[in-house]
Amino acid sequence: MEIKSRLRLFFRSRPAVLEISALMSILAIAVLIRLLPVRWGALLSEFDPWMQFRQAEFIVERGWSGFREYFSWIDTKRWYPYGQFVSRTFYPGLAFALAFIYLSLSSIGLHLDLLELAVVFPVLMSVVAVLAVYFLGKEVGGKSAGLLAAFALAVSSANISRTHAGWFDDESISIPLMLLSFLMYIYAIKKGRELKHVVVYSVLSGFFLGYVATCWGAHRFPFMFIQLITLLLSFIGRYRREILVSYSITFGLSSAIATSVPKLGGVAYVYDLTIASGLMVLGLLVVFELSSNLASKFLRSFVPRITTVALLASIGIVASLPTTKFLSTLLPGIRSELSILISVAENQVSTWATVFSDLGFFLVFVPAGIFYMLREGTDESIFISALTVLGIYFAASMVRLAALAAPFVAISSGYAISKVFDSLGGVIASRAEKRKGERVPIEYAIVTPILVVLLLALPLSPSFLVGRSFPRLSPIDQAYVPPTVVQSTLPVAASIPDWVNALSWMRDNLPEKAVVAAWWDYGYWITMMGNKTTLADNSTTNSTQIGVIALAFMSPPEKAYQILRQHGVTHVVIFVTHEVSFYAGKYLPRLLGYGDEGKWVWMLKIANQEAQRLGVQPMNERDYYDPTKPLTEGATEKFWKETLLGQLIPYKPSTQDGNVVHYYEEPKVNGFKLVYSSSPPYRSYAYVYVYELTG
């Protein structure tokens, strides 16, 4: 009877029911949008998820002992002939999480397909992220702000791009855990919190933050943000003993976990900026604690000086110690020196268009949200405001970091929108009070539902309803695309099975001991789906070996043959994109630029770096490419006739009525025999060609 009466009381509380119903609806929207890619089958998206899956598969095949064996695993099917020490190259957290879930379910009799579990894992983690944002928003601005923030993240294109079905990569688990860590830290430092609760929340924050370090190279951001915001709160007069206790536990536990990750250097990671600066912050907090207990005004006068000197020293360390890759995020201008890094589209500097398309129209409300939060002036508001500003800065610095900013943009915009609705509701209520017995003015009665409908409908409208001029504003468009291998890397929502067919052919027809040279973009696919040994892959850990491949592709066939043979290569794979368009009554066959015919310029730059290392005369890039022309038309005759890649690409350039066109010519290159074509000429948009080294 007691349970029944409690349930009756619960359902009488309509606000609570509405809140839970709204939150469940938002979670359902988030899940349904992110499951859209499953229409094309249970496959992983992009490239890196395949290597994450390979690690989980290694553990699962060996059972519970696989967690131990992982740390001594040298993967000999990759980076031939050296192989790769996996635990020193990759973060184990994501693979460990999937393997743990799979083995745990298997131990109780639930046997799932590991690949299918990997496909839906990001979707499940997105639910955690949306819930975390809801509670963060609720801390800042109440229930309405929390619900609006959750909805904003549920339909965020930037978040969807890293949590849709098949995106089994670091961000899918790291961002939710980062948000949980921030949430627990906010709970821990809340004024008036009992010590036992401070300890519990701090332990949870430290664990979540530490696990982020086992998954994600960008863990330095949440680690150092906790340090920064703790210092900031202390310097503006918000210091209290709970902050010292919470920071000590969070920092200590997370650092202990981070120093257990082989990729981070183990115990030596203590000397890294990430931990070293945290130790300095801990020292500063101890100074604050001592100053708060000093009775002498004379002694207190020295505390600001001590903290100022320590702060300046911290800034000096921050300015001098970051690695080049980390520093390139802070200072994107230096990224042009990192050819391999910037050759990846998602590592390039963002434009205003990409920032807006990734973060959506909610970005418009962010300035108002930050204004309202800073005016509120609570610890939570300062916390989220600082996160939002830094997140947007990093999103502008690098395309892929839009996913980092998305949760904080959602919270800030949700708070701003809730304030707008509160103000509008107040106006309506006051007008109704003044005009008792009168109807609410039509402008208010109409404006409110219109705002609500637009808020819900605009982000969810597919581009075919709002026009193709804004194709990425819709999260449905962001999610409703096939896995990358199914679309053969082309930006179309359709199945182009050339890569799937080629990888299947390689798996079934190439010799077991075949060694394949291809540009590093396709290495994971060839290893995982093609089950063949590769010379290089997407981990890009051996820049010298990548340089060797680039040099081979940019060298004359005779020299390229010698380079490849020296490295044990038996087969070469190239990828070409091509279409036949109909324009002004004529058929125009042209290269599209999404394959090696568009990536070879980066190969040339990297080949020159390798040539310098070997003391070989570097190539003059202007001899191979005219930068005043479009990429697919700028290749010179020297590229087409004097490089291995130019001769292996079957579609050769010619001029037709003043237009550059590319017609198919059967490739005949000494030492290289074409043994497989994924499609006949002019029958597809993507073509995978496999050449065998002969003689």
TrEMBL record:
Residues 514-565 form the STT3/PglB/AglB core domain. One of its GO terms (cellular component) is membrane. It is found in: Endomembrane system. The chain crosses the membrane at residues 16-36, 85-105, 117-137, 173-189, 198-214, 220-237, 244-262, 268-290, 302-321, 352-374, 381-402, 408-430, 442-465. Keywords: Glycosyltransferase, Magnesium, Manganese, Membrane, Metal-binding, Transferase, Transmembrane, Transmembrane helix. It catalyses: an archaeal dolichyl phosphooligosaccharide + [protein]-L-asparagine = an archaeal dolichyl phosphate + a glycoprotein with the oligosaccharide chain attached by N-beta-D-glycosyl linkage to a protein L-asparagine. Residues 39-411 form the Oligosaccharyl transferase STT3 N-terminal domain. It is a multi-pass membrane protein. Its EC number is 2.4.99.21. Its cofactor is Mn(2+); Mg(2+). Pathway: Protein modification; protein glycosylation. GO terms for molecular function: metal ion binding; oligosaccharyl transferase activity. The keyword Iron does not apply. InterPro entries: Oligo_trans_STT3, STT3-PglB_core, STT3_N. It comes from the Archaea. It is an enzyme of class 2 (transferase). Belongs to the STT3 family. PANTHER family: DOLICHYL-DIPHOSPHOOLIGOSACCHARIDE--PROTEIN GLYCOSYLTRANSFERASE SUBUNIT, DOLICHYL-DIPHOSPHOOLIGOSACCHARIDE--PROTEIN GLYCOSYLTRANSFERASE SUBUNIT STT3B. This is dolichyl-phosphooligosaccharide-protein glycotransferase. It comes from Candidatus Terraquivivens tikiterensis.
